[in-house]
Give the backbone structure.
Amino acid sequence: MSTRVSTPFTPRPSLRSLLAKTQSVAPSETPVQFQINYHAAITRDSCADGSIGASDLSIIILANMATDLDQFDSAVHFDNCAFKPGVERVSELWRLIEAETDKQNLYNLFGTMIHTVQDFYAHSNWIELHQNVSPLPAWDLKVESLPAGIVSGRFLLDSPKLCGPNAPTHDQLNKDSPSSPEGSKIVQDGPNQGQTLFRLAFATAVEATVVQFSRLKKVVHGA
Ligand SMILES: [Zn+2]
């Protein structure tokens, strides 16, 4: 089976205006996947040290957000229990990133890659399975280290569909926004008591994205 990698998008003017909006406007209530303004916020929080310049970071964020225009491939968003295809997408994109000599292409590839990394926390039950652990660990993106009982939401539009029949739907499981049914749930006890599942998904997605930025900085700066 060949690895599918979506073609990275070239930033478009309409997306640039969208980017400007994410810097000033509160999150909308549009029920799409990890709402794209959160992808922007997670990405900014993951690279706050200024080591990637503002214009390069904008390319990364636009490519990340544009990735939600593809709602037909489970691997892109870790939907439908597509853990192995998702890992393969991330690996293949890293292979391309490390071979890329054009900086804009490289940042486009990186932006779409981290979209997938971030969606894992909003679309799977990783957060629920680790809600009594603090700090909540980021996944190392190895299929063999996934815990027993891991699922992600079933999403009608995209495929492959690899969940068993009893897996929850995307609508039931997603933590794409603070107001989604699952994202708004509050941890009742333990070290994360009082936190919403959305907040934990966001924070863990930041941790996971920091790891990816560390690798990017080695590629870009050779450090
Ligand atoms: Zn997505």
